Task: structure prediction
Amino acid sequence: MASSVEAAYSDRAEEYIEKLGSTTAVHPSDLQLVTTWAEHIEGPVLDVGCGPGHLTAHLAERGVDARGIDQVAGFIEHARRAHPGVPFEVGDIDELPDAAQSLGGVLAWYSLIHREPATLGVALAEFARVLRPGGGLLVGFFVGPVLEPFDHAVTTAYRWPAEALAEELRGADFDVVETHTRTVSTPRPRPHGAIMARLAGVPSV
Result:
């Protein structure tokens, strides 16, 4: 589904790939968190809003059954060239191609930052649909003291208080497992948050 966010990223895809399309651009503690989380997931992991595919490929190289999906065709074209053998596809977070209860984990690393708060539940409901009971979700986001929009380099993004985002997850039938935040004294990098959650219910055996 075409959107203003898709168009904005498509216009700057090459610039984004050059600056952020490698794990060297990921904070070491974030990379460790994503890696450790994924290695403990049982079942396939879908990296939603995977961008240039660097995190998806990083996980696949470590034996995780990972694939990526993004609405920006330029990102997927790059990901397929840069990481042959790792599955990538163009798709919409709100309409994932996966069957119900087919995934062990969903990685949403900064892929929800441009969502208007009123529409966040649509994506979270789709994550809940494709995850198995007990399946894992890891969300990376911009953290702040109040929920507010700001002028992101590509297009408008939102800062979330960690507890406010956690409440959204609980409302979508997720149990919050861990919350991480990081702030620095300089304007960059921006304050960061991550929430690890599990879909409510008992895993099937």
